[in-house]
Specification:
alpha/beta, binds nicotinamide-adenine-dinucleotide, oxidoreductase, 2-hydroxyacid dehydrogenase, 12 strands, 7-stranded parallel beta sheet, 5-stranded parallel beta sheet, single chain, about 35% helix
């Protein structure tokens, strides 16, 4: 099998090469993302290996079919960037990595919560300047407070369990609850408006769909406790960012921690060491001392990268065997 790997970062190459030791596929790495401009690079390959920001629309898929590409191997869980029905019509199979490491994202969610609460990022910056003052660094005990988990799937459940480890009262909302898992974890499910009303920390773990787009709008923010903390490690467009900015400005929303951003597009996937990216809304968010933004790194652990690489190549191997 000859595989064209698009949007390659140095870590993709490292982990895929290691996982490929048992298969010895020909992996041709391209730094560019797969889209209409770069699609010709796929010629001469049996499969393309892509990530969330490669675009597999009609022109690209038609070129794939013409070039003899028979498999799209996604090295991620989401597949909203692939026209699945057209791929099916063209006889191109699509494989993905459904669950590489819920713990990686759950643990990162806790990192955002703890950092925002105890302000270790600010303390570190101060101490580098020789300033050991505690001014403005006051936090709160999480023990005994209420955490609201929106979406109790793989990552939501793993996050809920970590929050329980802090002796928090964990409540959750999920329209399609896995009753057995929820009961086993001892989590109370509540209607969404109740969750907003009672939670001191709200963390989002549901997918981005038509019905969850901007689910955190002005009204949802208004119904949250004054001073509540909102965390999003799922998809940026779950939050109406302008409404969140207004709520921060009105000092109603107490803290905002986001690993994903509404307009993230290419932004969070570029290598910032090569390019400084200016974004007005990000700059606006950064002007609030109680906001923490990171660049979609929740998944970024050694274990998750190993699982992504191994599952991607197992998918390709299984395809080759059929
Ligand atoms: P999952 O499919 O296991 O769980 C999603 C849960 O959300 C399901 O239980 C589903 O019933 C629930 N849900 C659906 N609609 C809902 C709604 N309207 N309100 C509340 N809950 C709803 O998915 P997962 O693996 O736990 O991933 C969750 C999210 O994390 C995904 O959106 C994914 O994009 C994101 N993610 C982020 C990173 C990162 O690096 N930051 C990495 C991986 C995944």
């Amino acid at each position: 099998m000859k595989i064209a790997v698009f949007g390659t970062k140095p870590y993709d190459r490292e982990y895929l090469n290691r996982a490929n030791q048992q298969y010895a596929f020909q992996l041709d790495y391209f730094k560019v993302r797969l889209n209409e401009e770069t699609r010709e690079l796929a010629r001469g390959h049996d499969a393309v290996c892509v990530f969330v920001n490669d675009i597999l629309n009609q022109p690209v898929l038609e070129t794939m079919a013409d070039a003899g590409v028979r498999l799209i191997a996604l090295r991620c869980a989401g597949f909203n960037n692939v026209d699945l029905s057209l791929a099916d019509k063209l006889g191109i199979k699509v494989a993905r990595v459904p669950a590489y490491s819920p713990e990686a994202v759950a643990e990162y969610t806790l990192a955002l919560i703890l950092t925002l609460n105890r302000k270790t990022h600010k303390a570190w910056n101060r101490i580098r300047e020789g300033n050991f003052s505690l001014n403005g660094l006051l936090g709160f005990n999480m023990t005994g407070k209420t955490a609201g988990v929106v979406g109790l799937g793989r990552i939501g459940l793993a996050t809920a369990k970590l929050l329980q480890g802090f002796d928090m009262n964990v409540i959750a909302y999920d329209p399609f609850p896995d009753e057995v898992a929820i009961k086993a974890a001892g989590i109370k499910t509540v209607p969404l408006h109740e969750l907003y009303h009672h939670a001191d920390i709200i963390t989002l773990h549901c997918p981005l769909t038509d019905s969850t787009f901007h689910m955190i709008d002005a009204e949802a923010l208004e119904s949250m406790k004054p001073g509540a903390m909102l965390i999003n490690t799922s998809r940026g467009a779950l939050i109406d960012t302008q409404a969140a900015i207004r709520s921060l400005k009105a000092e109603h929303l107490g803290y905002l921690g986001i690993d994903v951003y509404e307009q993230e597009g290419d932004l969070f996937f570029e290598d910032l060491s090569e390019q400084i990216i200016q974004d007005d809304i990000i700059q606006r968010l950064q002007s609030f001392p109680n906001v923490l933004i990171t660049g979609h790194q929740g998944f970024f652990t050694r274990e998750a990268l190993t699982a992504i690489a191994e599952t991607t190549l197992t998918n390709i191997h299984e395809f080759a065997e059929t």
